[in-house]
Design goal:
Number of domains: 2
Structural class: alpha+beta
Shape: globular
Largest sheet: 4 strands, mixed
CATH topology of the largest domain: Glutathione S-transferase Yfyf (Class Pi), Chain A, domain 2
CATH class of the largest domain: Mainly Alpha
CATH architecture of the largest domain: Up-down Bundle
Radius of gyration: 17 Å
Strand order of the largest sheet: 2-1-3-4
Number of helices: 9
Number of strands: 4
């Protein structure tokens, strides 16, 4: 397997999961300017990361699909939840992170994609940062009394770690969210997280 990633992007969650699984894989750093290159667009026509390529040439894109695929391919890693309800709970929180929280970062990172006026871009960015607080409050509540999002370690936890890093880097108000702070410390001490971050130069 080969993972195509951009350092610190959501592909970091797949990178961590691959480390947790503990099976051989390759990682390939895609430079930002390569995302639109003909060679990379053959792998992922969306021009985004992640992309996961199997030895037979089959390529899987979309973070949610890759995380579920890895959980199914390596069930002994125990990252997909237990039983139908366990998988549903993991995917509930993965969907929340991917569909609700993650998109709100788009105007934080690249407001010029939405509005041309510079002042309006600043206002959009600031408003998005303010709105993000409520999303993290909900996650903090979910983590109360839990070490992991669903109680046991799953493929949703690395995704949370990624968007938590983004929040900390972009000045989202996380004050008082002690469960999230505890989760972040645990992840930073995890050997798999450390290995993936070291490979990505983070």
């Amino acid at each position: 397997m080969k993972l195509y990633y951009l350092p610190g992007a959501c592909s970091l969650s797949d990178h961590i999961v691959l480390e947790w699984i503990g099976q051989p894989y390759e990682s390939h750093h895609v430079a930002r300017e390569e995302l639109g290159s003909p060679a990379y667009l053959q792998l992922n026509p969306s021009g985004m990361v992640p992309a996961l390529q199997e030895p037979d040439g089959w390529v899987l894109t979309e973070n949610v699909a890759i995380l579920n695929y890895l959980a199914d391919k390596f069930p002994l890693a125990g990252l997909g939840g237990e039983g139908a309800r366990g998988r549903a709970e993991v995917n509930r929180w993965l969907a929340y992170l991917n569909s609700d929280l993650h998109p709100l970062f788009k105007p934080v990172f690249r407001p010029e994609r939405f509005i041309d006026d510079t002042a309006a871009q600043d206002a959009l960015r600031d408003k998005s940062i303010q709105r993000l607080r409520a999303y993290y409050e909900r996650i903090d509540t979910q983590l109360h009394g839990r070490d992991w999002l669903t109680g046991t370690r799953s493929f949703a936890d690395p995704y949370l770690f990624v968007v938590l890093r983004w929040a900390m880097g972009k000045g989202v108000d996380l004050s008082g969210l002690d469960n999230l702070a505890r989760f972040h410390r645990r992840m930073m001490e995890d050997a798999g997280v450390k290995a993936a971050m070291e490979q990505e130069g983070l």
